[in-house]
């Protein structure tokens, strides 16, 4: 139901700082300035559907994203629904059911590695570097990470 081309496009969510998540989207191709979108989500089947409490808005005041706090990611399905209206008319809705840790619409920006320690010995001209894996919302195995070290001579 709803007018063609009014549904959102390019829905993507990014997790950062372990428990924050931003979901963003582009307005529909035929969306007018008075189109308004509303995001509802259910983080797991055990939880209730809730509406976004902190919308990201474009220059026309249209909702084009949502900021979430205290997000917990595990092996669970989440359900997203974006619907809305314009001039009292319904627009096409967008629905997505995803497995939070594997589907392509969820991206996690990792924190830097923790407790980086460098020990250099002048006699051998060698340095040893240790660190702990970054904090993450869901990765439990440190073997999942690959690191790159850039050494600059200053």
UniProtKB/TrEMBL annotation:
Q: Which GO terms describe its cellular component?
A: external side of plasma membrane
Highest taxon listed in the record's lineage? Eukaryota
Enumerate the UniProt keywords alphabetically: Glycoprotein, Membrane, Receptor, Signal, Transmembrane, Transmembrane helix
Q: Does the keyword S-adenosyl-L-methionine apply?
A: no
**A Pfam family:** IL6Ra-bind
Q: Which residues form the Type I cytokine receptor cytokine-binding domain?
A: 11-95
List localization entries: Membrane
Recorded hits in SUPFAM superfamilies, A to Z, give: Fibronectin type III
| Protein's membrane topology | Single-pass type I membrane protein
UniProt GO molecular function: cytokine receptor activity
Q: What InterPro entries does UniProt report for this protein, alphabetically?
A: FN3_sf (IPR036116), Ig-like_fold (IPR013783), Short_hematopoietin_rcpt_2_CS (IPR003532), TypeI_recpt_CBD (IPR015321)
This protein's name:
CSF2R factor
């Amino acid at each position: 139901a709803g007018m063609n081309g009014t549904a959102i496009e390019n829905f993507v969510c990014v997790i950062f700082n372990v428990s924050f998540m931003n979901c963003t989207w582009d307005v529909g191709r035929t969306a007018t300035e008075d189109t308004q979108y509303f995001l509802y989500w259910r983080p797991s089947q055990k939880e209730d559907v809730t509406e976004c409490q902190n919308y990201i808005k474009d220059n026309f005041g249209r909702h084009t994203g949502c900021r979430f706090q205290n997000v917990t990611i595990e092996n669970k399905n989440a359900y997203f629904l974006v619907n809305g209206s314009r001039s009292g008319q319904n627009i096409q809705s967008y629905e997505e059911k995803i497995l939070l840790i594997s589907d392509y619409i969820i991206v996690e920006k990792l924190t830097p590695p923790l407790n980086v320690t460098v020990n250099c010995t002048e006699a051998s001209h060698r340095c040893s570097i240790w660190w702990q894996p970054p904090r993450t919302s869901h990765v439990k195995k440190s073997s999942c990470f690959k690191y790159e070290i850039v050494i600059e001579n200053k």
